[in-house]
Specification:
By secondary structure, the protein is an alpha/beta fold. The protein has one domain: Winged helix-like DNA-binding domain superfamily/Winged helix DNA-binding domain (Arc Repressor Mutant, subunit A), CATH 1.10.10. The protein is 34% helix and 17% strand. The protein has a 4-stranded mixed β-sheet, with no helix packed on it. It has a two-stranded antiparallel ribbon with strand order 2-3. α3 crosses α4. The two termini are 20 Å apart.
Amino acid sequence: MTTVTKKTNKHCHKHTNIDLVLEQVKKAKLRLTEPRRAILSALVDNHGPFSAEEIHRLFCKKVCDLVTIYRCLSSLTAAGIIRRCEFGDGTARYEISGKEGHHHHVICRKCKKIEILDDCELENIDRVATRRGFVDITHSLEFFGICPSCK
């Protein structure tokens, strides 16, 4: 399983209230099924980002099968409730989304440990895009290196 380490406490998803996330599901007019509730609870309780297989292992497999996990991840991503992270290894990972939780990651190329970088200096670039008439601006930026344990 991927190891995720917090760099700072700012904007930590562990402070995300599951009730607020479940309210987002209702606002998106998605049914609040047991698998969706289990996935969201796992992501809020454990942060992430996690692959579909890792999410499936986080809770009892009797809740749903892996195919249902993929379907739920797809609908929750489309609704903007979770975000998909791509780290260039062919595995999609997912975490709770939202401006209050916006952050980037640094990933060890050897052990695959992921550390969260809360500070984002790219908001200025987002504003440049806004001045050019773009709306609903998002960005994705990840860093890769060798962690202190692996060097």
